[in-house]
């Protein structure tokens, strides 16, 4: 930034001036785009604090006349919405998925990173091939399986698969585990560690940051997932947040409660924002490594 | 050299550690893929036993308007939204990578909206596109544009979804940004010394170095947009007049609303084949056009 | 109570039930079979349905050998949960067609039990159920459902908007032939305010007579051939391109686009969401709608009146009836006990009690109906009675109960007619293609 100030004083070469011009235009474009990106967010926030009457008024107001904080309370006390219960369900599924994914995927990745065996390349290729396997292509037999087991309308079908490792996360963790020096393990073996201890007490403690990335992203996936919950969950008490919120658009309300829906959206984004605030770097790293947005 | 006993022990350990994945792979991937192939040759409503009908589902599919329409809808969305999103996120990444004030702030502000995904985003944009009380039409009214019904109008619903998809380009932008920052400074310096202008440097140095990132994003973008469901389920229910009747939504309706699991399985298999082919084609093309540092792969 | 604890409790009651009945044979009357049977009652998760839970203690006290368990799901998920529980061999005993699908759909899938063998000594007249209502759920003389509630189509009107426009309230007497469709449109014109501001805009009438394929019936035109009602709900012919049907649809959608007295879908959805009823927002003068909307009338923030559906071109049909029955599912292991529960629910006493507990469900039991008519604050019971009786007289059962695979058919109509409702296309442009697609659909599902 000091650079910019410097060049401003010396408008010597036309080339430099052109570069500077480009930068200013770039800055203005970014400013415009940023405003455009932020506006809907602002609309969300302000709608969540409007009364029903103000919410329908034209033109829309940008700051509510008086803040209807009651909207947030309404979410939790209105028995047609059951927001609190659904929030809890989403948390249960999210946390269980994180635990399942972190432990199972690191366990498997450890196997892939540390040991060679006949077929180990083949199996790793198999892992990679499932990276692109679309869920809709396999959801029907999965659904039929869980339904025949009587697990329909429970949270288990959403949680169970995560305990059998995720291809993305195996890939991510394996890349990291192979960077850990072999000497470390040799030393461990000399100390008489059994292999499972090498995984548990040596590898895991060294992998905090990567594990955090895995945890954050498996949480976000599970938190935002709509399709699987839509297939499995039928009663309102068992809904996770995404279906619960989508259901607020349906039947039961006289006037579509946009203000409540915006309040619900805000609260549902909250855990993600908190994660972002405390682990911004993990976030960015995770996105860059996995391409998951 | 390892002894055979040692390597046998290592083999056992390998299979011990990968066993959770192996079980999961068989139960949650391999079995479903094969099972849905089987179901795709049957008529199955979950209550009665599956009835084998050979290629019946497939021949019906090829005559089904709704099936072709869902492909058309999905491809339309894909071919407009994916390239534009990629292009825009690259542009913004380049802009943010300049020496301009408040870079960190811009980056966060651009990225932040992409965290609001799924149903929250769908609801927000449904509201933003509300014909009467929404933000978007109000904004357009300053330019003299009359009321557009967006999600309620078959000519605009798809465009509303595409505009909405731009809102999530922050993630892609971050990836490009990381790619840009990962370009070794000495390469850019060298280009400058050779007298290359900014544009030429970008074209001849930056872009080739970014191509793996580009490819990666393209694959993920394509596969994601083949699987659009949340928007159709939450906002449009595939309408108006089937204009947002996405492929996966079609599978969902046929399987879980019309209870035609066999018919839907046939569609699921076609999706699987399409995704496999596209991934394969892009990988093949990439061998020819994508530059990997340190020489081409293979 | 979660599913698991539910199962646990169930096995507990089974175990202790044996012990308890063995020990307590001295006290109490009732069954001494030595076994407790649990009947599952599956219903929609909304207060006007789940109130049955409050009836259980009384029923169980009167029938010591039977326990009732209620399971529920929201409307949108109703069918999927039902199918899944049947697939998991976990089907409920008693339910109704409360989801998208109707009676004929369940019947053709073979989901329903023929109750006839258990109905020895059952007389509809003992429960004050009219014979023609009882016959709706008979096929080839076999009974597959016993009516529970009977909804009709009524006209609701917003008294505040009528007063503001200085209009006379519409009549409740179906024999008052001066109350016609054209007069309704006249009234509607006087109440319509066209405005961009959602808070100010209002419309005269929302004409929600049945589902989209039934609406022409009001104008004396039938979309389906007459054999549909006798052959298990499978139309042999579709009449969507017949001039009278086209004219009927022109009239219906002319309310929005020619007369401009009805709300556009954009307006309705902006105000009430994707599935809501815009009348409840207080911005609609008159609404032709199912009588379930009446149940919520105490919560309206405006004064509501009820009137006869105006006289249209069809002399015989002016109201769509929605008779909800109770079914016993085929896999039920205790049809006898399930039937006891159903019979309990249609007794005069329980039907009367249900009116208040449900917030105003119209009983099928005509003796209890007297009490129903006086259940609505601010509306004269005599008026409601008149409207209901007129509706029964000029009523036709809703297509969704009578036609096979109705949810797919309805989906087709909703999507294809959206262009007309949005004003993008004319009725006559769209109907031929609907007829085409509908024929293909029927050919497939009814093969």
TrEMBL record, chain A:
PANTHER family: ABC TRANSPORTER PERMEASE PROTEIN MG189-RELATED, ABC TRANSPORTER PERMEASE PROTEIN MG189-RELATED-RELATED. It is a multi-pass membrane protein. InterPro entries: MetI-like (IPR000515), MetI-like_sf (IPR035906). Keywords: Cell membrane, Membrane, Transmembrane, Transmembrane helix, Transport. PROSITE patterns: ABC_TM1. Residues 87-279 form the ABC transmembrane type-1 domain. Belongs to the binding-protein-dependent transport system permease family. Its main location: membrane. This is Carbohydrate ABC transporter permease. Pfam families: BPD_transp_1 (PF00528). It is found in: Cell membrane. The chain crosses the membrane at residues 21-45, 91-110, 122-146, 158-177, 198-223, 258-279. CDD domains: TM_PBP2. SUPFAM superfamilies: MetI-like.
Automatic annotation (TrEMBL), chain B:
Pfam families: BPD_transp_1. It is found in: Cell membrane. InterPro entries: ABC_transporter_permease (IPR051393), MetI-like (IPR000515), MetI-like_sf (IPR035906). Gene3D superfamilies: MetI-like. Its main location: membrane. The keyword Transport applies. It is a multi-pass membrane protein. The chain crosses the membrane at residues 12-35, 77-96, 108-129, 135-152, 159-181, 201-223, 261-283. SUPFAM superfamilies: MalF N-terminal region-like, MetI-like. The keyword Nucleotide-binding does not apply. Keywords: Cell membrane, Membrane, Transmembrane, Transmembrane helix, Transport. Residues 71-282 form the ABC transmembrane type-1 domain. Belongs to the binding-protein-dependent transport system permease family. PANTHER family: ABC TRANSPORTER PERMEASE PROTEIN (PTHR30193), ABC TRANSPORTER PERMEASE PROTEIN YESP-RELATED (PTHR30193:SF1). This is Sugar ABC transporter permease. It comes from Cohnella silvisoli. The lineage of its organism: Bacteria, Bacillati, Bacillota, Bacilli, Bacillales.
Automatic annotation (TrEMBL), chain C:
PROSITE patterns: PROKAR_LIPOPROTEIN. Residues 1-22 form the signal peptide. Keywords: Cell membrane, Lipoprotein, Membrane, Palmitate, Signal. The keyword Membrane applies. The keyword Methyltransferase does not apply. It comes from the Bacteria. This is Sugar ABC transporter substrate-binding protein. It comes from Cohnella silvisoli.
């Amino acid at each position: 930034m000091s650079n910019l100030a410097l060049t401003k004083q010396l408008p010597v070469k036309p080339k430099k001036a052109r570069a500077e011009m480009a930068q200013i235009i770039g800055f203005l474009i970014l400013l415009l785009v940023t405003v455009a990106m932020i506006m809907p967010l602002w609309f969300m926030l302000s709608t969540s604090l409007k009364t029903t009457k103000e919410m329908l008024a034209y033109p829309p107001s940008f700051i509510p006349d008086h803040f209807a904080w009651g909207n947030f309370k309404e979410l939790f006390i209105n028995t047609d919405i059951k927001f609190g219960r659904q929030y809890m369900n989403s948390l249960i599924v999210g946390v269980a998925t994180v635990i399942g994914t972190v432990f199972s995927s690191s366990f498997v990745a450890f196997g892939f990173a540390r040991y060679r065996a006949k077929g180990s390349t083949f199996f790793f290729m198999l892992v990679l091939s499932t990276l692109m396997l679309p869920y809709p292509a396999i959801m029907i037999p999965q659904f039929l399986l869980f339904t025949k087991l009587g697990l329909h309308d429970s949270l288990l079908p959403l949680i169970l698969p995560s305990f059998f490792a995720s291809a993305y996360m195996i890939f991510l963790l394996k890349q990291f585990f192979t960077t850990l020096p072999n000497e470390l393990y040799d030393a461990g073996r000399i100390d008489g560690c059994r292999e499972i201890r090498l995984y548990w007490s040596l590898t895991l403690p060294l992998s905090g940051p990567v594990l955090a990335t895995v945890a954050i992203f498996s949480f976000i996936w599970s938190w935002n997932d709509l399709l699987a919950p839509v297939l499995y969950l039928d009663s309102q008490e068992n809904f996770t947040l995404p279906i619960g919120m989508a259901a607020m658009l349906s039947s039961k309300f006289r006037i579509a409660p946009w203000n409540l829906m915006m309040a619900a959206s805000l609260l549902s984004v909250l855990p993600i924002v908190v994660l972002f605030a405390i682990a911004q770097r993990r976030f960015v790293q995770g996105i860059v490594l996995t391409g998951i947005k | 050299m390892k002894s055979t006993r040692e390597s046998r022990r290592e083999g056992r350990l390998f299979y011990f550690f990968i066993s959770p994945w192996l079980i999961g792979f068989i139960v949650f991937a391999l079995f479903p893929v094969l099972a849905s192939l089987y179901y795709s040759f049957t008529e199955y409503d979950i209550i009665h036993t599956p009835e084998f009908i050979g290629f019946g589902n497939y021949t019906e599919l090829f005559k089904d308007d709704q099936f072709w329409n869902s492909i058309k809808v999905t491809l339309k969305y894909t071919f407009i939204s994916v390239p534009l999103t990629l292009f825009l996120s690259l542009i913004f990444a380049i802009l943010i990578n300049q020496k301009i004030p408040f870079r960190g702030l811009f980056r966060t502000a651009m990225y932040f909206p992409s965290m609001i995904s799924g149903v929250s985003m769908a609801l927000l944009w449904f509201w933003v596109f509300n014909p009467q009380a929404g933000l978007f039409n109000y904004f357009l009214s300053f330019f003299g544009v009359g009321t557009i019904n967006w999600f309620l109008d078959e000519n605009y619903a798809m465009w509303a979804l595409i505009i909405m998809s731009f809102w999530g380009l922050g993630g892609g932008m971050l990836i490009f940004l990381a790619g840009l920052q990962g370009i070794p400074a000495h390469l850019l310096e060298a280009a400058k010394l050779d007298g290359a202008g900014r544009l030429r440097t970008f074209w001849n140095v930056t872009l080739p170095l970014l191509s793996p990132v580009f490819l990666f994003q393209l694959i993920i973008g394509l596969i994601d947009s083949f699987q659009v469901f949340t928007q159709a389920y939450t906002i449009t229910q595939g309408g108006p007049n089937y204009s947002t009747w996405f492929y996966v939504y079609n599978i969902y309706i046929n399987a879980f609303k019309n209870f035609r699991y066999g018919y839907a399985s046939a569609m699921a298999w076609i999706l699987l084949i399409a995704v496999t082919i596209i991934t394969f084609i892009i990988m093949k093309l990439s061998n020819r056009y994508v530059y990997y540092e340190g020489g081409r792969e293979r | 109570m979660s599913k698991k604890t539910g199962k646990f409790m169930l096995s507990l009651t089974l175990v202790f039930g044996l012990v308890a009945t063995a020990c307590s044979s001295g006290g109490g009357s009732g069954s001494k079979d030595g076994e407790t049977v649990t009947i599952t009652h599956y219903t929609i998760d909304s207060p006007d349905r789940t109130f049955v839970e409050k009836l259980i203690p009384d029923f169980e006290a009167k029938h010591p050998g039977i326990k009732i368990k209620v399971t529920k799901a929201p409307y949108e998920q109703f069918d999927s949960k039902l199918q899944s529980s049947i697939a998991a061999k976990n089907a409920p005993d008693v339910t109704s067609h409360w989801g998208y699908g109707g009676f004929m759909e369940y019947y053709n899938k073979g989901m329903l039990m023929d109750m006839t063998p258990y109905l020895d000594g059952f007389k509809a007249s003992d429960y004050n159920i009219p014979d023609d209502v009882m016959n709706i759920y008979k096929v080839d003389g076999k009974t597959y459902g016993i009516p529970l509630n009977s909804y009709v189509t009524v006209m609701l009107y917003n008294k505040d908007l009528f007063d503001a426009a200085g209009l006379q309230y519409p009549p409740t007497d179906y024999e008052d032939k001066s109350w016609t469709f054209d007069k309704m449109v006249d009234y509607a014109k006087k109440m319509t305010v066209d405005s961009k501001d959602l808070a100010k805009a209002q419309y005269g009438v929302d004409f929600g007579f049945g589902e989209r394929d039934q609406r022409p019936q009001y104008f004396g035109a039938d979309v389906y051939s007459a054999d549909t009602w006798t052959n298990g709900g499978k139309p042999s012919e579709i009449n969507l391109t017949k001039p009278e049907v086209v004219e009927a649809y022109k009239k219906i959608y002319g309310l929005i686009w020619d007369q401009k007295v009805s709300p556009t879908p954009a307006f309705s959805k902006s105000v009430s969401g994707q599935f809501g009823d815009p009348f409840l927002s207080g911005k609609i003068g008159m609404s032709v709608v199912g009588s379930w909307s009446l149940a919520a009338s105490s919560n309206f923030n405006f004064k509501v009146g009820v009137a006869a559906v105006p006289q249209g071109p069809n002399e015989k049909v002016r109201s769509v009836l929605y008779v909800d029955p109770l079914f016993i599912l085929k896999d039920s292991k205790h049809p006898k006990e399930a039937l006891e529960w159903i019979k309990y629910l249609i007794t005069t006493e329980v039907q009367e009690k249900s009116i208040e507990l449900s917030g105003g469900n119209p009983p099928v039991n005509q003796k209890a109906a007297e009490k129903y008519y006086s259940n609505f604050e601010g509306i004269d019971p005599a008026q409601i009675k008149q409207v209901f009786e007129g509706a029964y007289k000029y009523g036709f059962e809703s297509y969704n109960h009578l036609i096979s695979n109705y949810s797919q058919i309805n989906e087709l109509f909703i999507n294809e007619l959206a262009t007309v409702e949005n004003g993008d296309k004319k009725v006559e442009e769209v109907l031929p293609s609907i007829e085409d697609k509908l024929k293909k659909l029927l050919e497939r599902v009814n093969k």
